[in-house]
Amino acid sequence: MSSPEIYPLPKAAFVLREPVREVRRTVERKHVDCQLISYGGRKVRALDHKTLVFLSWARDHRDDLNAALWGKLYAALRQHEEVPSHLEAGVFRASLDEAAQQVDDRLQALRDLEASVEHDAKGDIVLKGTQVEVHRLAALLDGEMSIEDVLQDYPSLSRDQVAFAEAYAAAHPKAGRPYPKLTAKAALAQADLSALDLDD
After folding, report:
1. What pLDDT was estimated at residue 48?
2. Rounded to two decimals, what is the model's pTM?
């Protein structure tokens, strides 16, 4: 099955295992090119496949990269139609094969998860086989709960399911009243109960 060539930033973030805001920041700093595409009835920014591979490689080689080297390597990448096996900038050589495999694996995981959502009886999007609403999970992450925090309250879910919920909700915003940004358990843990006289 051939994968699409262009990925909205939320999907790109899932593939890269990065928060959506970090991928947006990279694009806004003009470290990579992005394209505007129509998606879900809106114009959104998107990255192509070879840029995803480059960003995946760059994440694992941050210590070796300065702005000048980044620019030279990305300029070399742009000269290729498809993902090359390596890039060169002077004496520096970047092998992209491992990063390309990681991206392809994550794209398959994304496709599998996209097939694992369904509408419940109320019409909400839930993870198939659960009653957990995708947009509820995304709201928790937007409320600064970490994936680990969410998994403590939803132990039956996987990290990928929670990360996918964030990507799905960002790509498909929910109309109407927003979900709470804390689980009930997390809200209770943060509540200041010191003012209550519990000895009575």
Report:
1. 95
2. 0.75
The pairing of strands 42-48 and 92-95 is unpaired
Task: Answer for the pair 31, 23: CB distance below 8 angstroms, yes or no.
Answer: no
12's tokens: 């790109």
pLDDT at residue 137, rounded to an integer = 93
Neighbour tally for 53: CB within 10 Å? 24
Cα–Cα separations (whole angstroms), residue 41 to 23, 37, 164, 193: 22, 10, 20, 46
Average pLDDT of adjacent 10-residue blocks, the chain of 200 residues: 72 90 89 86 90 95 90 94 94 95 94 88 89 92 89 93 88 70 61 49
**Residue 171 phi, psi (nearest 5):** -80, -25
The answer to whether 181 touches 149, Cβ cutoff 8 Å, is no
